[in-house]
Amino acid sequence: MPQGGDKYEPDNSMASASTITFDEPTPSQRHAILPAGDVDFIKFYADPNHGYNIEVPAASAFPLKLTLFDAQGNELRSDDQGSSHFIARIGEWTPTIAGWYYIKVEAKNVGGEGYYRIFFGQWT
Q1: Please, are residues 69 and 102 in contact by the beta-carbon 8 Å criterion?
Q2: How far is CA 8 from CA 1, 42, 108, in A?
Q3: Three-state DSSP class for 5?
Q4: In sequence order, what are the beta bridge partners of 40?
Q5: Whether the bond into 48 is cis, omega within 30 of 0
Q6: What are the tens digits of pLDDT across the range 39-91?
Q7: Helices assigned H by DSSP within the chain
Q8: Contact, 7 vs 58, CB < 8 A?
Q9: Helices H, strands E: what count in the chain?
């Protein structure tokens, strides 16, 4: 297995982020936070004509934190509280300008590690 335990490594910075597109019916990627302290970045293109949901289902992971950034590295939103259905979720988000955006995924608890599947939804 590649460094860090998933095929998207190394993706520990915005500059080396893996890209996800909305060409698939249910865009998702399986990543790993391995070893403990690892972080993952996922890059996606968003425009104001669509809304977006970024979700890690409760059944697919350990406690995680999601943080949304714009291309300049400004933090826009984050979630580590989840719900009964999600470990973490950034939902009903619509960008004000078209461009590249980034999701940072990290363990919520110090020393947390494991695999997770993240889903991206796009709607109009």
Answers
A1: yes
A2: 11, 9, 20
A3: helix
A4: 105
A5: no
A6: 999 999 999 999 999 999 988 778 999 999 999 999 999 999 988 899 999 99
A7: none
A8: no
A9: 0, 9
The answer to whether the beta carbons of residues 84 and 58 sit under 8 Å apart is: yes
CB 92 within 8 A of CB 50: no
**104 vs 99: CA distance, rounded Å:** 17
Backbone angles phi and psi of 18, in degrees to 5: -75, 155
Domains of the chain, first to last: 3-123 (2.60.120.380)
The DSSP-derived string for 91-121 is: EEE--SS-EEEEEEEEESSTT--EEEEEEEE
Residue type, 6: D
Residue 31 C-alpha from the chain's centroid: 10
